[in-house]
Amino acid sequence: MIKALLRLISIGAVVLSSAASAQDFPSKPIRLIVPFPPGGPNDLIARVVGQRMSEILKQQVVIDNRGGAGGVTGTDAVAKAAPDGYTIAITSAGALAISIALQEKLPYDTLKHLKPVTLVATVPELLVAATGVPASNLTELIALARAKPGTLNYASSGPGSMPHLAGELLKVAAKVDIVHVPYKGAAPAVNDLVGQQVQMAFFDLPVLLPQVQSGKLKAIVVGSKQRAPSLKDVPTTAEAGFPQVEADNWYGMVAPVATPPAVVARLHQATVAALKDPGVREKLSSQGLTLVGDTPDEFTAYIRAEIEKWGKVAKAAKLVAN
């Protein structure tokens, strides 16, 4: 009887301690993991949103870039972090949904080991070609690939990333043989595109926009249902004859799954407030991003749907888990 009573007292103390810590959250800097190198779209979003969150929470939000495995390495660090809200991530569709179909030994289960906080932003994928590629539109690019099977290549930010799946979708739809060249993030891949080390790639529009506007890369098509306002002259994949090649990337905030509900609620409130800030909206919307800020439950349902969708795409493209 005494042991049972002591156990109840102990459990009550833990609950009260957890509630108190949640009420005081945050009382120290928060580490916001970006699972890609600096300079890419994930990094851009996290830095702009994180800066505003620092002001809202009155605690520093420190960006921690941990690239590798198409976003899986950094996302896994959050899955294995202490569930106290002080280690979180803004991570990608690739790490949260697509990699499930492509990596047989994914080190975490997205919905068992991570707590979705909110969908932060969506962004269309833009197909570009290096300036030395003798093609200025999708018809010419496909004709070139068919004339030289297995010789053209496309870059991605890693296996299982949205750029990877977009490239595979194009291969299947156009019946072309182009070689996948994975990188550890968008930024190094774009550098090699500009340097003509690789020939083409789908990437998030924001990271490609400066190079397209400066003439360092050629915009071919937008992988979305609608044209991008910042590139009104660039057709969609549907307009170019391939409506099945549709790819919109997305980024969301996650925390370790056992993070206290009150802490999750505070992180959600601060993130949504940051997304509604006029300065944040101006910086990110002008880059072609659509800011969201839904509830944890809505984001959870969204992830489930995306896992199912991209699992079907991977099967259709005959991509094998490795």
Describe the structure.
This protein has 322 residues and is of the alpha/beta class. The protein folds into two domains: 27-123 and 248-316, D-Maltodextrin-Binding Protein, domain 2; 124-231, D-Maltodextrin-Binding Protein, domain 2. Helix content is 46%, strand content 20%. The chain has twelve helices and ten strands. The protein has helices spanning 2-24, 41-57, 72-79, 93-102, 110-113, 138-147, 162-174, 186-194, 205-213, 261-276, 278-285, 296-316, and strands at residues 30-34, 61-65, 87-92, 114-130, 153-156, 179-182, 200-204, 217-222, 248-256, 290-291. Strands 1, 2, 3, 4, 5, 6, 7, 8, 9 and 10 form a ten-stranded mixed sheet that branches. It is globular, with a radius of gyration of 21 Å. It starts with a helix and ends in a 6-residue tail after the last helix. The model is unreliable at 10-20 (pLDDT under 50).
Key terms:
D-Maltodextrin-Binding Protein, domain 2; 2 domains; 322 residues; 12 helices; alpha/beta; 10-stranded mixed β-sheet
Concise synopsis of the structure shown:
The chain has 322 residues and is of the alpha/beta class.
Topology:
Layout: H1 2-24, E1 30-34, H2 41-57, E2 61-65, H3 72-79, E3 87-92, H4 93-102, H5 110-113, E4 114-130, H6 138-147, E5 153-156, H7 162-174, E6 179-182, H8 186-194, E7 200-204, H9 205-213, E8 217-222, E9 248-256, H10 261-276, H11 278-285, E10 290-291, H12 296-316
Parallel strand pairs: 1-2, 1-3, 5-6, 5-7
Antiparallel strand pairs: 3-9, 4-7, 4-8, 4-9, 4-10
